[in-house]
Each structure stands twice: as structure tokens, then as C-alpha cells.
């Protein structure tokens, strides 16, 4: 099996995780969690999104979040955006990068973004024109790349066409998202392998959900075809508000633990991620879907630390 010596993790919990929570997470707690995460060694954090606050009320405080976090040098603070207005707000708030999502399914795009795929791509074009001259990195993603809860199978050709459209706009860091947890190691290997072969100048990241328990297996399958950037969420918080069942990103501490155990460097301190997850668990008042949070790491077990991570 082909595993890299090092991978890059992107923490998406403060956006993908928090947006699923009904109860409003106070801005101070969001800031506390992001600051904890940035002290863990994780190089990039999706800190918030600049979307319509009437649609996603949890993200209504994105300006305040960006203003109050402690910007740690070396950490890239990104925000998800879905239209030009979002880009304007994110730039004004001082993000390092914007992450723009288009769905590989027309129905999902319409339901999530209230736009057609063509409209989203037109908006992305405008966003790129706005960001390029001021040095704001644009990181596009293909959402529901492995299947759509509304349309069923998503043809690989559609994902490839979107990735090619991104590359044609000069965008090189492309994320492929298993938004509703429908990927398996075989489809991951095939799609990511194909994308890497067709677009050798692009770097692909995999956005992982663990909806059906295949998240870590999918990460390994992607590593096997040369992918080295992965997106996960503290405590396994997360999902997509369009389909209420898509809960559960891969938990960052589980992914870090996998890498630690296999000798794959992440630069991330698993204990700090656990501290952040524990804090969220306390606030939310329910156990989070993270194995390492519940059981601790092997090192803890062997060194006699009885309290889980
Ligand atoms: N930030 C703040 N307000 C926004 C906005 C943004 N990025 N985009 C649109 N709005 C506001 C408009 O100003 C307008 O306000 P008004 O009613 O006071 O005039 C209102 O929203 C409607 O504008 P419209 O252009 O019709 O946009 P929309 O409501 O169709 O919004 C999205 C498009 C994509 C921003 C919206 O569907 C959305 O926020 N979806 C969230 C999806 C999401 O986050 N999913 C999870 C991650 S993929
Ligand atoms: Zn997601």
C-alpha cells in the first residue's frame, strides 16, 4: 500500500460542523475553539462561511468570528462562500482564502445554493476576477461528487467536467467532497486517480464524511493514489443542512490518530484537537461521534493515562 510520509489536514469543523447545530453556538465559544484548533498545528481552518444568514443562522456571526480570532502565523484561515456577495464579505473580513462550492448534481446545487450549476460557475468566475488581483486564494470544491440524495448516481464525467472548469479558471487546489458519505475506497481510488491523471498540474484534496463508516478507509484509498490533503472536523461534527441525514464528517482526531499510528506526519497534536472536541461535547451535551475522543489514543493507554483523550 502506498502511503505518503506527510499529509496536510484542513479543519472544517467551525464551518461544516457548526452549521449543522440548531442551538446557536455563542461567538466567544466559536472563537475559543478556532484558537484552540490553530494551536494544534493544523495548517488550515475553514473558520466560517459568508452565506445568507436567513438560510444558515448559525453562520450569522461570521464577521465577528473573523474579527475576534487570534490569527496565528502559518495558519490559513478560510471561509466558505457560494456567491459574489459572500466573497465581498469574506474579503472585507480579512480571510486568507475563499472556498467556493459547486455541486456535481443540478438538484443539489439548486436546493443548497438556490442557483443552477451554470449560475454557480458564473459566480465563481466573478469571484476569481475579484480575488486574483488582491492575492486572495480561491479554492473550489466539487460537492456531492460520489452520489446525490436527490439524483442518485453522479456520473464521474460531471465531476471531471467541473474540475476541468476550475482548472481553466487557473485554479489549482481543488477539493472533491463526499458531502453525503456515499464514497467507498474503490470509487475514491477511481475518481481521484482519474482526476490526477487528467489534471496533473492540480492538487486534489478529499473532503471526508463518515456517514456510513467509510471515512478513514476512503482517506487511505485516496492516499494510495497520491492524494495528500484531507478535510475533517473536530469530534466528527458536521453534515450538510440540505439533507438532514448527512451527519458526521470524519473526526479530525481519528484521522490524526490513523496517521500517527501509521507513521504519516500531520504536524497536528491530537490531544489539542481532543480538548477542542471535549469542549464542544460539553456545550452540546451529547457524545460526539469520534472514536479517539471516547477511547483515547494507544499512547495514552500504554502510558497508563486512564482518562480518554
Ligand atoms: N451573505 C449575506 N446575505 C446574502 C448573501 C451572502 N453571501 N447572499 C445573498 N444574501 C442575501 C441578499 O442580500 C438578499 O437579502 P434581502 O432579502 O435582504 O434583499 C437575500 O439574501 C436573497 O438574495 P439572493 O441573491 O436571492 O440569494 P439567495 O437567498 O438565493 O442566497 C445563497 C444564495 C447561496 C447565499 C443561499 O442560498 C445560502 O446562503 N445558502 C446556504 C447554503 C449553505 O451554506 N450550505 C452549506 C454549505 S455547502
Ligand atoms: Zn461536508
Describe this structure in words.
- 42% of the residues lie in helices and 15% in strands.
- By secondary structure, the protein is of the alpha/beta class.
- The radius of gyration is 18 Å and the shape is globular.
- The mean pLDDT is 95.
- The structure holds coenzyme A and zinc ion (ZN).
- The site of zinc ion has 8 residues, from loops.
- Zinc ion (ZN) binds next to loops.
Architecture blueprint of SSEs:
Elements: E1 8-11, H1 13-17, H2 27-38, E2 44-50, H3 62-68, E3 76-81, H4 84-93, E4 97-103, H5 106-113, H6 117-131, E5 137-143, H7 156-168, E6 173-177, H8 185-198, E7 203-207, H9 215-224, E8 229-232, H10 252-262, H11 270-284, H12 291-295, H13 298-302
Parallel strand pairs: 1-2, 1-8, 2-3, 3-4, 4-5, 5-6, 6-7, 7-8
Helix pairs in contact: 2-3, 4-6, 8-9, 10-11
This protein binds coenzyme A and zinc ion.
Question: How many H/I helices?
Answer: 13
What share of residues is helical?
40-55%
Radius of gyration: 18 Å
Unreliable parts: none
The CATH homologous superfamily name equals: Aldolase class I
Instruction: Return the CATH class.
Output: Alpha Beta
Mean pLDDT: 95
N/C terminus separation: 29 Å
CATH second-level architecture? Alpha-Beta Barrel
Which cofactor or ligand species appear?
coenzyme A, zinc ion
Tally of DSSP β-strands: 8
State the CATH topology.
TIM Barrel
Based on secondary structure, the structural category is alpha/beta
Coarse shape: globular
| Largest sheet strand order | 1-2-3-4-5-6-7-8
